[in-house]
Each structure stands twice: as C-alpha cells, then as structure tokens.
Amino acid sequence: MLDKDFFTPASLAVIGASGNPEKLGYVLLQNILEGGYQWGVYPVNPKEREILSRPVYANVRDIPDPVDLALVVVPGQAVMGVLQDCAARGIKRIVMISAGFKEIGEAGLEREREMLRLAEENGMRILGPNCLGFIDAGIKLNATFASGVHEAGNIALVAQSGAMRQSFWDWAQMTGGGFSKFVSLGNAANITESDVIEMLRDDEQTQVITAYLEGISDGRRFRSLAAAVSRVKPLLVLKVGRSAAGSRASVSHTGSLAGDNEIHEAVFRQTGIIQAQTPEQLFDYSYGLATQPLLRGDRIAIITNAGGPGVMASDAIAASGLQLAKFSEATVDQLRAVMPSFGSSSNPVDLTGGATDEMYRQVLETVLADDGVDGLLVVLCPQGPVNVAGTAAAVAEVSPQFDKPVFANFMGALDHDADLAVLREHSVPNYLSPERAVDGFTAMNRYRRWLEMEVEPAVKFDYDRTAVEQTLHNDSQSEPRVIAGQPALQILEAVGIPTARASLATDAEAAVRLAAEIGYPVVMKIESPDIVHKTEFGGVVVGLDSTEAIRAAYETMVANVQKHGVSRIDGVMLQKMATGREVILGLKRDAQYGHAVLFGIGGIYAEVMKDVSLRVAPLTRRDAADMIHEIRSYALLAGARGAEPADLEALTESLLRLSQLAGDFPQIRELDINPLLVAKIGEGVTAVDCRLVI
Amino acid sequence: MLDKDFFTPASLAVIGASGNPEKLGYVLLQNILEGGYQWGVYPVNPKEREILSRPVYANVRDIPDPVDLALVVVPGQAVMGVLQDCAARGIKRIVMISAGFKEIGEAGLEREREMLRLAEENGMRILGPNCLGFIDAGIKLNATFASGVHEAGNIALVAQSGAMRQSFWDWAQMTGGGFSKFVSLGNAANITESDVIEMLRDDEQTQVITAYLEGISDGRRFRSLAAAVSRVKPLLVLKVGRSAAGSRASVSHTGSLAGDNEIHEAVFRQTGIIQAQTPEQLFDYSYGLATQPLLRGDRIAIITNAGGPGVMASDAIAASGLQLAKFSEATVDQLRAVMPSFGSSSNPVDLTGGATDEMYRQVLETVLADDGVDGLLVVLCPQGPVNVAGTAAAVAEVSPQFDKPVFANFMGALDHDADLAVLREHSVPNYLSPERAVDGFTAMNRYRRWLEMEVEPAVKFDYDRTAVEQTLHNDSQSEPRVIAGQPALQILEAVGIPTARASLATDAEAAVRLAAEIGYPVVMKIESPDIVHKTEFGGVVVGLDSTEAIRAAYETMVANVQKHGVSRIDGVMLQKMATGREVILGLKRDAQYGHAVLFGIGGIYAEVMKDVSLRVAPLTRRDAADMIHEIRSYALLAGARGAEPADLEALTESLLRLSQLAGDFPQIRELDINPLLVAKIGEGVTAVDCRLVI
User: What is the largest CA-CA distance in chain A?
Assistant: First the structure.
C-alpha cells in the first residue's frame, strides 16, 4: 500500500533543477517555491550554484538535511545514476518526471525495467516516469511543471494524461471548482492508479475521487478496490480509448458481443464507479458530489425566472430517470402568495422576468421545506429587475438550512464573477447550463442508489466438478479446442443447468430409433466440426413428430450441408423439443478482469439487435437479476401483451451457476449457450445447444 | 412575407422610454444609444422632457421626422392606445416588448386578439408581445433591454425565450463566437418563427440560422420553408418541451409509438434541419458551419501534443459516424521527418509534450495536403516548450491555404485570450473540448450529406379512390369510428397494397366451407367489436390445415374470448396464411404537420423494442427507403444470418401508397397495418390485418 504521506513530503529535492527559465527543471522549482510550500526545498544540479535565490547542491547526497521526496527532471540517460544516489541517500519516494522510458520504445523499456529493479531492491516507490508530477492543495505544493494556481477543493484527480490537468484547470476557471490533489501517473510503472485511489480513500481532504484512465494496470485488484472505495466516497472514472478494441474476430456470439469497452462498463456498474463519457461529465458529476449533501430521493424541483431554461431542465430530468417533484397543495398556496399571478407555481416554478431576489428567497424556503422535494435547481437569467448578487446570497443562505442538495445555474457567470463569489464561498455549485446541472443530479442519484444497495454475499452451488473436469480433459482436440454438442451439454448438466436430452445418431435409422426413446416431438441438428452457425446451412429441423418426418429431414439436412461444401459430417443430434422464450448465455475470458458473463435475447435477434447485458464473474444474485432487467426486451420475459411470464428465478440461477463454472475453470475462453429456453414460471430452463472454446 | 428591412430600421421611436435607470424603458434606450446605432432615435413619454440628453416627445404623433419602427415598453393597459397612435402616424413596424398578453391568461388573451385585429386593419407587423426585442449587429442596433455587446458574426438566433440570448452571450464570451441578428419572438402573435427564418434566408450577413423553439406556429408552412431554407444555408433547431407530450392514451400502436417529439424529429430529418439537443450543441454546431469551409467527405485528421485529448477525439469520431482519416505513405514519411521519433505519425498525430509551433506548422501543411483528409482538428495543451501564440498563428495562416475545415481545441483559452485572438481574426473556431469539436464536424457532415442529396419529386400512384371513399362512408358507426377487419383491408386493396384474402364465417361449419374455397393452410381470427389485441385473448390461430383443425380451433377460440368476458362475437375471419417477415405500417394524424407515417418491425417486438421509424407524409421514395434502413433490426429484412432478403421494393411502395392515402383522406386519424408480411425479393407484401380510426 502506498504511504499516505507520499504526496505530503516534509522536504524535497529537485534533481535536475535548472537556471534556464525555458527548462522544465526551472519551471518546476519555480512552481514549488511560488505555490506556498512551507518546508525544505533543495535544488540539485552539479553545474549550478544558485537558482531562484536558493543554494544548489551538486548531488542529492550532499544535502545535509533530511530529504523526504525527490523530484527527478534529468535527461533519460542520467536517470539511473540519480536513482542510485537517491538509494544511497535513503530516499524512498521518487517522482520521475523525466521521459525516455517505455514510451520511446525498446531502449526505454529496458531502462524502465532497470528502474523497477532498483526500486524493488531499495524499497522505493516511484511515480511516473514520463509524468507531469503532482499537486497537493492542502500543503500548497505544486510539484508539476504546469503553471496556474487552483482554488483548493475536495476533488482529487488521478490522470494517465497530463493534459487532463489543463482540462480541469479550464473548467475550474469557468466554474470556481477546485481540487485537493492532482496526481499524474505517466507510465504508471511502479505506482498505479489503484495505488493512488487506495491512498485517496483515506485522504481526509478528498471527498470525491476522479480518475482519467486509458487502461487498467491490474483488473482484479482494481475491481475489488473500486467496490470498497465507492462505499466510502464517490469514485468517478473517465475511461478513454473506447473505440480502439472490440473488433477482434471471434467464433462465438459472446466473444463478438462482449467488447473490451463493454467489459469495463460492466465492472464500473458492479463496483459503484460513476462513469463519465467526457471530461465535462467528469467535472459536472464530481462538482455536485463534492459540494452538496447527497440526494435522499430522485424528486427534483426547479426555480427559474425564465421559461426556456425551466423547460430544458424538465426535458433533461425526464430523459435522465429523475423525477420532477410534485409540490403539496400547501406549497403551491404559499408560492402563489409571493410570486406574480401569471408565473407558474407548480414545478418548474417560473417567477418570470419580474422576479426579485426577495421573491427567490421566499420561494427557495418554501420549496426546500416541501417533503416531496429531494433536490433543487435554481436557475437565474440576468434580466429585468433581478439582483444577481442578492439572489446568489439568498441561495447561499437558505440552502444550508435544509439537508438537501441545491445546484445553481446562474447564467452570465463570467460577467457576474464578483456577484457569484458568495455561491463559491458557501459551496453551492454553479453549473454552466440547466442540462449540466441535471447531469450532476443524475450522477448523485446513481451514487445514492449504489449506497442504498446492501453488500451481497457471493452465491455458491454444490455441483459435480469432477464430471466437468473429465469432460474437459476427455476431449482430444488440440488447443484452442472447441467443445460443442453433447459434451458441452454434459458440462452444463454437471454444473446444474438443465439441458435438452440429446444423443448422436450416425444415420437415419439410428435417428428413428433414438427418437422413439426420447419421445416426440424432437429437434434434429447436423453434427459437424466444420459448422458453427447450423441454421445458415439448413442444418436444423424442429418439430419432427413421426418416423417419416425424421427420415426425410435427415436426407434433406445432409444434402443441405453438402451443398455448402461441408464433407465432415458426424451424424445428427436428436433432442426432445423444449419450449420457452429463447435467450443466450455466454462467457468470455478477459485478460484484465477474469470472465465476462453475457445475457441476451436469443435467436436471430441477439446479434441483430445487440440486446445483451454484461457483468464480470463472480456474479451476485443482484448482478444476475440486473442483467436480466437491463435488456431492452425484458418485457418479453416478464410477460408482455398477455404472454406467460418466464421463469426468471431459474434463469437467474443459470447465470449464477455459469459464473461459478467460469471461476472454477479459468481455461474456458469462450462459451455460448444458444439457445437457453426459459419456460413459464416454475417450469425452469433448458439449454438446447452449447459451445465452449478452451 | 416579412419585410427584409424590418430589423434594419432607418429611424425608431422608443415608446415608454423612461428616465428611471431601474425601468426597462431606460435600459432599452441606453442600449440603443450606446450600441452605436447611427440613425434617428426618438424617445416617447408624456411625463418626461429629456432622457439621456435626448429630447422626449409626449406622443409618437408629435415626432416631426419619419419613424420607421416603434419599440413599445409601456404597461399592458396603455398598449392599445399607443398602437392606435402608431397606426395614425403610419408606422407599420412594431416591436412589442410590453407584457400583459396571452401569457397572463384570459384578460391578456383578449388584449392580444385586439392587438392582432388592429395590426390586420392597419397592415402592421408586430414582433412579440412579451419579448426581449432584437439585435442587428450589422447596424449596431441593440434593441433589447439586455446588456452586453457581442462580437458581430454571421450566426442568426431566433428564440422563443429571451434567456437564450444570455446562453448565447455566455458561450460567445467563452469562445469568441458572434452573431448577425438576435430576434426574440415572445408570444409570436403576429411575427412567427417562420416569418423570421424566411427573412433570414435572404439576409446576406447571416450564414447560419439557429432557432430555439418551444413550439411551431404553423407546421405545414414551417416544413416547406425549412426544406427550402436549408438548401441555401444551414438551419439549426433546438426544440425543447420534449418531455411534455407523448403520453396521451391511444388505441393504436402507431398512436402510442408516434409521440409529438418523434414527429418533430421526423420533420427535421426530412427538411435538412440540424437538430441540437442542448444549447451547447446549438452553439457548437453553428460555430463550425459559420466559420469554416464545408467538409467534402467524412475523414477527419487530428494533430495533438498530448495523448489524452487525441484518444478522446478518436473515441468521439468513432461514436459519431465520422471516419479517422488514413494518411498516405508519403504523408507519414514527411511527418516522421519533422516530429519526435517517439511521437505518433499516424492519425491521431501525437507530437508529444516536446512539440513546438514550427513543428505544428509543418505537420499542419503536410496533413492538410493529404487527399485522404477532409477535415482537421488541431489540439494544443499548453505544456512543455510549445508557444501558444505561435501555434495559433500557424493554424490561422496555414488553414486558409486549403479548402478544408480546420477546428481548434486549444486548452486554457481563458488564460491565453490574447494568444488566441489570431484564431478569431482568421475565423478558426476554438472549441472547449475535443468532443465538442468533433460534434461540430458531425453537424457539418450531416449538412454536407443533406446538400448532396438531390431534391426528389413526389411519387403519385393511380388507385381506386372511389372504392376507398365508399368503404369509409359505408361504415355506419358514430365518430370516432373504428374500421377494422375486412373493410379496412378493402381500403388497402383499393389503394394498391396487397392483402390476405379474408372472409367472415359466423359459425364453425361456415368456416370449414370458406377454408375449402380459400385453400389450406389458413389463419383464423376472432371478430368482435370489443377486442383490439386479439392475440392476448387467444383469438388468433395460425396454420390450420384440415377440417378437424378448423372445427377444434373455432370452439377453443370462442371459449377463450368468452373466458375474458367478451360476449359480442361476430364470428371468425379466415385468411390464406401468408408468409414473410412481420412488419408494422401506420398513420397518425398530427395537428401540426398532417399525417405521420410509421414503420417498424412487427409482432410482439414492435412495442417492446420500440424499433420504429417515422416520417411525415407526403413521403418521397428516399424517405420511405430511409425509414426501412433506420430501424435497428433492418439487418433482419436485408437478410442476416442466411435468411432470405425481403422484398424491400414492395415494402417501399406500400409506404408510399399509405402516404398518398393519408394525403387524400385527412379524416383518417390513426391506421395500423399489423402485420404486413414481407416475402422474399419479387414475392411482394401482404397486409394481414388493418385497423383505422376515423
């Protein structure tokens, strides 16, 4: 675990400090000295005597006082020597701003490995390399080569790109937002995003953690850590690089439907991470969470002095899954008494262009006192007689009297900077548009719901693990192996997922005998190692209810697949024809997180509509239930338009058993159950076909 | 048509000008005088002698010089007297800023009607009432009571809410954008959004028209006007109030699936309007269109000095339907020669933190010269040695040498205002984030594709109109009438949409006789005025292939519906069983635009998945084709997973014939064809069931 004092050093050396204002080593030192950091700062450079009125040491070993942390900005080739000096000096905390590592290719990669070995041997922790540094607002330390002083706040930003600091800075300039810490991970060779997030969980100045990530260093650790951190404080992630992956060829439905991006999103949902899609969302989401009390429900009230923004906010609320609060009659009566008769006293409250700050104050008090209101958005358009500063003061004074979040959208923020200072002082966030304020509520509501969900224990079933092992090993093909048909269904049976009885018949007469055993009607499917999608080849016939039908279908089927140039035919599989709604279940092994579990509506629709949901194993019962509810065609399973509701209980259990199978057999690369038939309530499920890639 | 000089008056009276700085009548006059308007300004107020050093007239009749336009800011009760004075003085152009009309209820509504009568009698055109006024940047006239001087630009804004001016102003402050005209419509009692948009089409200073609309005054005029205007210059609309409607009860699928919002969006698509969902989108979309040459293709290049924003821009491009440009080998070679070896010379080009302005300049030239690049986004993060002003100058100087749009995303715009002035001077838009710049390209690409589409003639079919009329009138029920079953199918036959043969049998034996006539297999459906969704009641049986099957089905079906408490049973309808993919076609009469035509995937999925598309009649052939392509399950019709491709030609024709039926018979309120079966290519379509509400 990363030392919690890593970013609050009691003294520091700047190795590579420079007297040339165009060098990073100068800018860095200047930022540290000008930022207000109170403790010892020791510039190191063998060629300089004094920089910025500070004495310069030739080597870090020459510094007589204790050195808590070293910032390194020397050229790449000098890095290892500097690190050895630091090791000799007993410095355990390094911030490696220098570039020239993994990012420049093979030579740099070797240097990075060497650096990691040295860190390992000496118990050093290293931020970077190739990073911007860090900022700690609490001790006024700007240990980056980026200029600009931020308002201190309680949002921490962990970023794999230094450019995010600039985005954050731009946003802070516009809104008055601020942060507690900024940590630039650079190559994240030694200190990873998980290390920093873990440390920030216990950082008292940080109320909200935001992270900009291009990749995840250790998926399993990240997942368990995120789930724990998000119980303590909100964790928001902007994951970029969404378009890069996902197009790799795959032989299974699950493989093609579960892209890297979808798997990341599944993990975020399972761990309570609030995902942002753009930097603006990251800021807007964290802004409200960092400044105001949490929502207790989803009913939002709006007060405005201009109709348009009220309508826009209402549209955004309707689109976001929040509710427009309904006022009590007493509230409406009180509102009518203080506002213009032609205004709107229902939600959104429109005070019209004639609104005054006193009117705002009274309406704020009335609306916030209504038990049917969980959160409030106050919109102000600087027009007519309204006093912007007075209204801002009213919002700042009234809102702390109620334990409910209040957001502002005062337009013209750049023109009214001084008028709005009172909002910043009282931590009322002023959003740049009504939609963005509603976005802030949406994120807050998501976090509220996460906190309200109890932590669920993992579900474990007893099953015949040996049978699965035997089936997996009996198969004699070379790697990657495909297990399909009967052996695949045997694995499902062993793990406790019911399947259709099925047996292989190698000719038409054998099929007839088998059908008599199984019982009519039966389904017949061609069995060939060369065929993946049997339907396309005319290789599936359903509803066979007589000897004649079976003989005829056998001949047609063989002819069909031969017509497609397939010669390797093992025979046909016969199964009792099961009924129910077709769904698809699947597994896909992910390099980062383990196995992804997929659920979707079955048949031809799965691929065309991409109506699927995803979670990463192990699943809790709620994960499985969420997966089922999440698909667009959920209503079909629940019993839309007079159809019988399906056995969702049995379906949930199948997902949980599949998740357990994945955990026990990491060698499963991909698995499709397609279709699984879900019968009426109480009548269970039947896996009709299954396919594994090992 | 609104006079093109309405907003460029040669002189104006301010009736209700005030000497009290807290009154609108003072602020308005002050804005006009301080804005730089060069012509005659005549304050009018019987109680004042001089305001802001100008002589005041007691009555507009007393002004000796010509008065081209009157701005009215008197209290509501004085309005009619003032208008009569204006009429007597021969003033035809009025801007009614005063409130106290429709927006205050019944009394105000009467005043508004009176005002309109007076306008009619005297040939006056009136903007407002209850509006903010207007701004014309060309003649430096700020005839609003909102303060703040805008940079002149070429974007016009027409708004039904005055607050939009403030949003626009906030955005302009942040980006340096500007506008040609701002027109606040207020109640739009006499001058509507269509009037102003029509005028702006011919306004030379306006290159892009943006509109904020809460409703449409005259849907049919708006539609034809918009289609014409958007051929001349981009027309962007932010339509709010999306959440208000759409929940009204409806007896048909089409009625419930075609909400007001969906119909507006259909019209926007058919007329080339670029729809924005938020004010930010409205600004971002117009910003690029107003400043840069149009895209000629959809291949976008990115140059950046920080990896993160490059990845974010790539994600946004992948999500938006644009393409990441692929450079030629020559381009890559040239890039390698000028940039750091560890940067990325493929798209997105990452110059890394070591980028200089000279490097930017060379790379800009190389990338823009590549024939595979249609547009360029230049990202700059102010870090390392980069010179912001020098890079901005390079972008401003290089980009005009190529007839391709170039957008910037220079971060830290608020800190580097002076450095970035050169971008504004050379009309290079600087977006606030990479995603928002990509949004700008997306809108531009949408407009390019609209311009590239040729104007299509309407399609007209000959059909038996008399037969339709007779069927409509023969039906004897009271209004609103429902026509279903056989008569409804007769109407479709008459208009040229093939239907399944169907006849009514009133008992089981009649059904057996009928089936022999039609030919097996047949479909049987219960016929009752009390049943809408027959499937839910067990009132449909398919695939009946014998006398016995028909007798058995008849009994079961009658028993089923009686079990549901339905007693009025007319018998059963028998149809030959048609095959093909099930789709739904529908009509819904819309108060604004005429009839909406709906298309969707059929069966139980139509409602559950809401996989439908919508256009407003009359349809062109392309509209119909677009509707078919637009649904998510289009691949099913086109022949996914080895299925036979469906007869889309016949389907397109059915949509066109339905559109024509709607145009000829406005009394049709709702119509569902559910299902229409679409057979294989060349085998046509069959309407199986149909229902009209008249």
Answer: 101
Chain B residues near residue A321 by CB distance under 8 angstroms: none
- pLDDT tens digits for range B79-91: 999 999 999 999 9
Residue A399 lies in a domain: yes
d(CA A26, CA B385): 12
Burial of B38 (0-12, 13-18, 19+ CB in 10 A): exposed
Q: Are residues B107 and B215 in the same domain?
A: no
Same-domain pairing of A433 and A461: no
Query: Residue B342: which of A104, A311, A415 has the nearest Cβ?
Result: A104
Nearest CA distance, A433 vs chain B (angstrom)? 8
B607 touches chain A (CB under 8 A): yes
Check CB contact of B317 with chain A, cutoff 8 Å. Answer: yes
Q: Which residues of B touch A243 (CB under 8 A)?
A: 314-315, 317-319
Residue A282 covered by a domain: yes
Q: Could you say which DSSP state residue A145 is in?
A: S
Determine, yes or no, domain membership for A137.
no
Tell how far CA B62 is from the center of its chain. 47
Q: Which residue of B has its CA nearest to A309?
A: B163
Beta-carbon separation of A280 and B145 below 8 A: no
Check CB contact under 8 Å for A536 and B642.
yes
Residue A248: is its pLDDT beyond 50? no
Contact B657, B496 (CB under 8 A): yes
Q: What is the pLDDT of residues A267-310, one digit of tens each?
A: 999 999 999 999 999 999 999 999 999 999 999 999 999 888 99
Q: Let me know if residue A170 belongs to a domain.
A: yes
- Same domain membership, residue B17 and residue B50: yes
Q: Which of A24, A381, A608 sits opposite B163 (nearest CB)?
A: A381
Q: In terms of domains, do B256 and B339 share one? A: no
Q: Are A382 and B166 a contacting pair at CB < 8 A?
A: yes
Cβ <8 Å between B162 and A537? no
Which of A452, A483, A510 finishes a domain? Answer: A452
Interface check for A319 against chain B (CB to CB < 8 A): the answer is yes
Residue reference for tokens 């974010």? B312
Q: What is the pLDDT confidence band of residue A223, given thresholds at 50, 70 and 90?
A: very high
Quick one: tokens of A472?
Answer: 């997996």
Assess contact for A3 and A91: CB atoms under 8 A: no
The complex's ipTM works out to: 0.84
* The amino acid at B101: F
Size of interface A-B (CB pairs under 8 A): 211
Chain A, 10-39: which have a CB under 8 Å from a chain B CB? 22, 24
Report the CATH number at residue B351.
3.40.50.261
| Residues of chain B under the 50 pLDDT cut | 245-249
Task: Say what the pLDDT of residue B397 is.
Answer: 97
Same domain, A56 and A177: no
Same domain, A1 and A58: yes
**A598-622 pLDDT tens trace:** 999 887 666 677 889 999 999 999 9
Give the separation between CA B570 and CA B563, rounded to whole angstroms: 16
Q: Quick check: B432 contacting A, CB < 8 Å?
A: yes
Residues B357 and B379 reside in one and the same domain: yes
Choice between A505 and B292, residue whose per-residue pLDDT is larger: B292
CA–CA distances in Å: residue A254 to residues A669, A692, B159: 10, 11, 49
Whether residue A106 lies within 8 A of chain B, CB to CB, comes out as no
Both A653 and A633 in one domain: the answer is: yes
Q: Residue ranges of the alpha helices (H) in B243-278?
A: 253-257, 260-271
What is the domain extent for residue B17? 1-131
How many domains does one find in chain A?
A: 5
Q: According to the model, what pLDDT value does residue B246 have?
A: 35
Indicate the angle between helix axes B485-495 and B465-474, nearest 10 degrees: 160
Please give the Cα distance from A1 to A7 (Å, whole number): 14
Tell whether A633 lies on the interface with B, counting CB pairs under 8 A: yes
pTM (global) more than 0.90:
no
